[in-house]
Write a structure and sequence with these properties.
By secondary structure, this protein is an alpha+beta fold. The protein has 2 domains: 2-72, Roll (Ubiquitin-like (UB roll)); 75-147, [2Fe-2S]-binding domain (DNA polymerase, domain 1). The chain is built from 5 helices and 5 strands, in the order ββαβββαααα. The chain has helices spanning 22-28, 77-90, 99-112, 118-125, 136-147, and strands spanning 2-7, 10-15, 47-50, 53-56, 69-71. It has a 5-stranded mixed sheet, covered by helices on one side. Helix 2 packs across helix 3 (99-112) and helix 2 packs across helix 5 (136-147). It is globular.
Amino acid sequence: MKVNFILNGVAKSYEVPCGEFLLETLRKNQVHSVRRGCDSTSCGICTVLFDGKPVPSCSVLTVRAEGHQITTVEGIAEEAEKLSGFFGKEGADQCGFCNPSLALVVYALKQENHQPSEKDVIQYLAGNLCRCSGYKSQQKAIMAYLEDRA
């Protein structure tokens, strides 16, 4: 079946089998920043923005994307690069496997809440697992990024 949606601001049309998940569709079409983690919606590694809201792409059937806007980290490249700088300053970048999904979640938080507290950040990050860290350096980097008005 043919599915049409907006991917990072560009209209896309994909022929997909019934029952295929968005994660699979994106990866088959060279969007490798959307990573495969647990395939059970519990790690957050496959997060994309679906009409601006973070969702695990391993649990969204591609057909549900019909007519919607899907954003991956490529669609917020400038903001992701800026966040990456803050991660580097705090030593929070480590292996980088979770960075694309973290960037998307932080971007969504920034769009929804213009003055998030540390508690808001912790709550928003709850669905994103990082196997390298204890999250403190990431939280510090994210707070610095969110407070930066330059």
